[in-house]
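Q: Fold this one first, please.
A: Sequence and structure below.
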Amino acid sequence: MNKPLDAFVPANHLLRRVEACIDFRKLAEPLSFDYHPDQGRPSIPPEVLVRALTLGYVYRIPSFRRLCEAISENLAFRWFLFLGLEDEVFDHSTITVFMQRVGPKGFRSLLTRLNHQLAQAGLSTGQAYVDSSLVPAAVSGEKLSPSTLSPEEFARVAIKENDVFFSCEAVREARWADFRVAKRRLVRRYFQDGKGRLPLHPRDPDARWRTMGKRKAVLSYKHHVLVDERGFILAQRMTHSTTRDPDVVLELLDEAPADIRVLTADTGYSLGRLRRCLEQRGIEAYIPLHTRHLEHRKKRKEFHLMDSKHLICPAGRILQRSTWDKRHECWLYAARVRDCQACNLKTTCLPPRSVRRFVQLSEYEQEFIRAEERNSTIRYQRMMRRRKTVVEGIFAHLDALGLERLRRYGLAAVQSEGYLAALAHNILKALRYMAGPRRAALSRALTSWPNASSLRTDLTTA
């Protein structure tokens, strides 16, 4: 008597727990609109491919080819993908085409719908942490060489496009077949800087040079995550490694399924513009003040802001607002020469060889003052300790899922990788909080893959 495939999968198997907690059909429902039910050959249901990609990250299978081999050999994988013992596994190129068709927007919808499921289950909270980490690209920069042109010549001929400089240079092309003299041909090369000293890889020109800790500079991307206090990734974004951390925070907050009320971050997010935006959204921010700001505060300790246009010095004199510094987003307040020269404190207040006092004040001084008061509380210390524990655990788990080094080329493919890794992370994290059968219909088993017309019809016409 032949046993069904379901009988070979243990009751406590990881995939059974995932099946009982996560509704993959609802997750992949928006992706079915990219498929036409009547045109072309019968397609593989998007739910099956989403399940296959989830397997690749949960079990850390590095390539699609090895993933298809593992599905063919593992009975639990076949059961999870509705495949019978006699069914053939789809080709690895099918997954590649699926990822290209869906793109980052489609995989972002998967993570968003999963987070809505978690929010409906009461697992999401309004307390979040934001941080970023560098992830090495799938290409190596060891054999890349700087431009053969001098910095002056490169600056004249290089063209800047999308923050990348490129030029056409003559490169030797060796002819090993007949050992003749090598010829030269014009090649389009990409560089990160305007002097031609930071070459980019031709296969992945979106990867940028950045120094990772104490190690040497590598071609990498930057992974931004917004997580809640339970460790669920509410939103994520892959960007160029040269992207500033505060520039991505508002986009992450817009994608979060929960209403964020408290946000904690490190000193890299200590930007006045960001603090003001968070206050306008009603978000309580626990972000350390930058050392540069603390030094400025120490220098003008006895200077008090009278209003937006006037500052009062320790002697009671008024400094008037004069010049706007666009780069640092601050105003320069200047005292009158006669007030400073007649002041008794000029020997300790005036810098050497200065006839009057200038004070630099940020446009967001009020936000910094409120942040300084908030950062002096015990709650701030607790939030910072908690942030370090949660965020470091998140990046460590993502590395364990295979995101310690990227597998694809190009920013769009890398963003899809980030969403899939975050999806697998949240699924595994949800197993700690969710238990029990999700619904009786999930116990369905398809005996033959070619005859799985009902599942295919449901997913392509949804």
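Q: Good. Now the second chain.
A: Here it is, same layout.
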Amino acid sequence: MILWLIGMMGSGKTTVGEKAAAELELSFIDTDLLITSVSGRSIPVLWEEGGEESFRTLERQMVASAADSGPVVVATGGGAVLDADSVALMRSSGLVVWLSATAQALEERVGTAGGRPLLVDPAPGARLDALLAERRHLYAAAAHHEIATDGRSIEDVVADVIALWRAS
């Protein structure tokens, strides 16, 4: 079974995933890192060269690859839920946990950090708010469970994720 972590950029998927995997003694996969490793290019370069559609194709392939990895913790890219086939694969191969956060919390976490093609907007907070509004229902439909991360320590979120994993 696979532990899938979904959510917006800045929701804590990678940090929580790494710590949960270590505690559970499982391998950890970050699909965004897998994309850059396999393609040999950064995500901003991939977006520039092929656009969002090309990137989403790679993302779909990496989700499928991760699904074949056996017991593992996987942090998906924020847009993985945009693909219905990826969502179906995640739900059927393991436990899907949505790490949710408000747009304000996400903005505080990612700010104007580089490497995020969807945040090249001059007002990243407004863009995050719009993306969250567009995707909220997709995250809710994809997830078996939601864990709110606002105002919580990484350790507390990891403990909640592990408790859900052990109960499943």
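Q: Anything worth noting on the second one?
A: The CA atoms of residues 72 and 165 lie 11 Å apart.
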